[in-house]
Amino acid sequence: MTHRAPAPADVAAAPGHWRPRYHITGVRNWINDPNGPIHLDGRYHLFFQANPHAPAWGPPHWGHVSSPDLVHWTRHRTALAPENGRPDADGCWSGCLRIIDGRPVIYYTGVVGEDDDRVESVCRARGSADLLTWEKDPAGPLLPGPPTELGSGFHRDPFLWQDGSRWQLLLGSGTTAGERHGQVLRYESPDGSQWRYRGVFFAAPRRIDGLDLGELWECPQLVASGSSTALVVSCQVPDAPRPLMHAVGFVGSIVDGRFQGAPAGLLDHGDVFYAPALTTDAAGRTLLWGWAQEVVPPSTQATMGHVGALTVPRRLTVGDGRLEQEPVPELAALRLAPVGAADAPVEPALELAGAPVDDGWTVTDDVARLRIRAADSGGSLVVEVADPVGGERAFTLRRAAGNQVRVFVDGSLVEVFSDGAALTTRTYWARPRVRVSAPRRSDLRVWQLDGAVVR
């Protein structure tokens, strides 16, 4: 549950200490959706949507980073960029990376045109063994647009998996009649090249149990765990002032080529998380990254050197109709030194861990404030934010009384983990240093984290 007060007036210019340091951001300017995560030959590769030319959304490129350990990341050259005269002239939108016949292949959404004239096609690029060089398919798009019978131009964000000897492909879409709602489409192929439309894979009403599921679904992701299958979609209302709402999950199974499942709720209980991407690593873990949006007025955003970030890598598990997340244990390697109660103010690159009581923990610079406290006799956790840019917000997520809570603060970016639930938000600090306090400091451990791990 989220409560938000109106944001205050614009600030004159964005300070540099808002930029996250141990999270992935662009070299400069804008990033959004994570794309194509894969664990290959002992290295994690992660791609993402980027506009390297301005601190705002623009025709997307694919940025690329890689890591041996999910902590230290190396930047690589741009993997994909829009090209005039091609089906991606107005953007290389989201997709996935798969190994097809022993070779890396990116499947992505190529876009030409805008608004009602926009064409969304499924495109392909083949990569070198080290994933550093990519060649677009000279034959053009695999799917030049949606099937005629769909009646909708929304046809984006391919996600592939192999089902026996055949490949399956999912695309996000939406309906056009009645109360519009999201749906996922399915295609099938014997070789990853020739695709046949197989109809609607899954759809759900606009609202379930008070949760708005939007008019359009983006970035479908599928994960199997034992006898259960989870489908994750990102919900959008295209004409709304803030169209990118949240990501939701469903848990069920695939029967005769269609998904049948029940809602598993929000993947994140904050106000900036969107478009998660999933992969399975060599250890069999399902890993997840999401896009952390900003909560700033446009005129402030225009002064920012880095807009948007990716969350820390999270482990996703499926069980008892729930999707649970926790930060990967490798993140403990970020810890540099404990922060004591009497220490001077520190840079906002921190991890907090413990069991907050009613009075909770506070991170503040005397102007902006982040507070985490227990409520309902410890059965829930309340996260409160107040700063001069994003305004005042409060969020609630579940918590088993006494269980450990972990909080990551990195520049303005905040991630909270409690009882398998996650919450992502922003706190725009007025000062470059913050203080951490708790009435019972014995209930709290604080570490300064390494802010120089993305190079």
UniProtKB/TrEMBL annotation:
Q: Which Pfam families match?
A: Glyco_hydro_32N (PF00251)
Q: Which GO terms describe its biological process?
A: carbohydrate metabolic process
Give UniProt keywords alphabetically. Answer: Glycosidase, Hydrolase
Q: Name one GO molecular function term.
A: beta-fructofuranosidase activity
Q: EC number(s)?
A: 3.2.1.26
Q: Which domain of life is it from?
A: Bacteria
Q: Which residue range or ranges hold the Glycosyl hydrolase family 32 N-terminal domain?
A: 23-327
The kind of enzyme this is, by top-level EC class, is: hydrolase
The signal peptide annotation in the UniProt record is none
**Which family does the entry's similarity section mention?**
Belongs to the glycosyl hydrolase 32 family.
What is the protein name given in its UniProt record?
beta-fructofuranosidase
- Organism whose genome encodes this protein: Jiangella aurantiaca
Source taxonomy: Bacteria, Bacillati, Actinomycetota, Actinomycetes, Jiangellales
